[in-house]
């Protein structure tokens, strides 16, 4: 019994007489309490409570963990989505000077990732079909009303970049590892590009999907495979390709000889120019 009491802070040493003495003495009360703690019923109760507390704490930890994953997986929706008003015509003459100068080399194929490169969301996790375009086809919305559009500069980049580099132009392609390829294609069909005023004879804005004349490779897996397919289809050497992507893990594609430019907050004209500069530097072309 002594070891039980010693576990009770502040308890007085009990003598043998006090243990068998008056039923109302304080040491006896404490002893009875100790005996109760040790009783099978009391122990079961305590074990049950401990189990419930453990389950609760474990659930709390799991909830916090999944919430943090959700936070990483679902960042705040479009920060820089394109405006939804009518688009004004684009002029090829408005291309940055470094992309208009015929004396400066350009990549023959420029390839874009989709999620967080051309648009500010993951199409496989943010978008809930069905999707429908707005009247101008400058944006779309999904079943939950989520606004889906390119980053601000992307419509003009997709419309004008093919006209850089003189008559040969620049081909465009897509390399995406999304697990929702058909939804991505649907969105590329729905989103239209503003008309190019001084070269494009088309009267109607083109669908974004139509500019990717170098091909679209959209499926999960290493992008090395995506680029091997793009190379086979176009016959363009890897060294003449420039790739824009927001994930550094996709740098593995550089083993093939392509140049990848990491974009941090979506494609802008500034990122395009910096990517082209890097491609020129690696290929030994001076600006
Ligand atoms: Mg991406």
Automatic annotation (TrEMBL):
Transmembrane among keywords: yes
Instruction: Supply the Pfam families for this chain.
Output: Acid_PPase (PF12689)
Q: Which domain of life is it from?
A: Eukaryota
- Annotated TM spans: 46-64
Biased composition range(s): Polar residues: 14-25
Cited InterPro entries: HAD-like_sf (IPR036412), HAD_sf (IPR023214), HAD_SF_ppase_IIIC (IPR010033), MDP-1_euk (IPR035679), MDP_1_eu_arc (IPR010036)
* Disordered: annotated span: 1-27
> Keyword Lyase: yes or no?
no
Entry's Gene Ontology molecular function annotations: acid phosphatase activity
Q: What keywords were assigned to this record?
A: Membrane, Transmembrane, Transmembrane helix
NCBIfam families named among the record's database cross-references: HAD-SF-IIIC, MDP-1
Q: What is this protein called?
A: Magnesium-dependent phosphatase-1
């Amino acid at each position: 019994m002594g070891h039980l009491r010693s576990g009770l802070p502040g308890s007085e040493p009990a003598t043998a007489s006090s243990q068998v003495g008056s039923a109302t003495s304080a040491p006896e009360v404490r002893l009875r309490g100790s005996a109760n703690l040790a009783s099978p019923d009391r122990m079961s109760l305590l074990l049950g409570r401990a189990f419930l507390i453990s389950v609760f704490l474990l659930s709390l930890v799991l909830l916090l963990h999944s919430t943090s994953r959700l936070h990483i997986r679902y960042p705040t929706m479009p920060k820089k989505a394109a405006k939804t008003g009518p688009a004004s015509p684009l002029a090829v003459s408005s291309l940055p000077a470094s992309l208009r100068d015929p004396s400066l080399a350009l990549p023959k194929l420029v390839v874009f990732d989709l999620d967080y490169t051309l648009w500010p969301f993951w199409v496989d996790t943010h978008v809930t079909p069905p999707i429908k375009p707005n009247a101008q086809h400058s944006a779309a919305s999904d079943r939950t009303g989520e606004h889906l559009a390119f980053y601000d500069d992307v419509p003009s980049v997709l419309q004008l970049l093919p006209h850089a580099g003189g008559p040969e132009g620049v081909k465009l392609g897509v390399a995406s590892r999304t697990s929702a390829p058909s939804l991505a294609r649907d969105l590329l069909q729905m989103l239209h590009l503003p008309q190019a005023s001084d070269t494009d004879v088309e009267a109607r804005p083109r669908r974004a999907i139509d500019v990717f004349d170098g091909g679209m490779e959209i499926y999960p897996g290493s992008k090395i495979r995506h680029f091997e397919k793009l190379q086979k289809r176009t016959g363009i050497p890897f060294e003449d390709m420039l790739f824009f992507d927001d994930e550094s893990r996709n740098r593995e594609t550089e083993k093939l000889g392509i140049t990848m430019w990491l974009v941090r907050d979506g494609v802008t004209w500034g990122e395009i120019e910096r990517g082209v500069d890097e491609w020129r530097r690696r290929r030994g072309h001076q600006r």
